[in-house]
Amino acid sequence: MPDQRDPRIFFAAERTLLAWNRTALSLMAFGFVIERFGLFMEIVGKEEVKVLQRHISLLIGVTFVLFAALIAGLAVLQHRRFVKTLPPADIPNGYNATVGLFTSGLIALLGVLLSLYILRGFV
User: Fold this and answer.
1) Would you kindly state where each structural domain of the chain is located, as residue ranges?
2) Count H helices, E strands: the chain?
3) Environment class of 9 (CB within 10 Å of its CB; exposed 0-12, middle 13-18, buried 19+)
4) Crossing angle between the packed helical segments 7-44 and 47-85, to the nearest 10 degrees
5) Which of 30, 46, 68, 111 could staple 24 via S-S, CB 3.0–4.6 A?
6) Are 90 and 13 in contact (CB under 8 A)?
7) pLDDT tens-digit map of 41-98
8) CA dihedral of residues 18, 22, 24, 27 (deg, nearest 10)
9) Using N-to-C axis directions, what is the helix angle for 99-122 and 7-44, rounded to 10°?
């Protein structure tokens, strides 16, 4: 019987995980910029508008950061679930399949910590 190894499927799943990582990082950075833009508007804005603008930008910015953390966490779960369905022959020998999972998990954790940092600085 011919060798049925096809690591392309596994590596496609790895690329998908990394694409979700990039998406999560982009959303997290965008949320941080939105939140800090509200701080900028508070510094240069008018008195009657600045409190409302700061609260809105804080809410939207933290929402983006938490959404990014959720995406990174869900990407880990989805990748693990898919890789479990692959036959062991499709995963290359000696390849460390946990690096991408660790990276996504760390991004999710850092997103939550960033949200807490932003909220702590506001309160």
Assistant:
1) 7-122
2) 3, 0
3) middle
4) 170
5) 68
6) no
7) 777 766 665 666 678 888 999 999 999 999 999 999 999 999 999 998 888 888 898 9
8) -170
9) 10
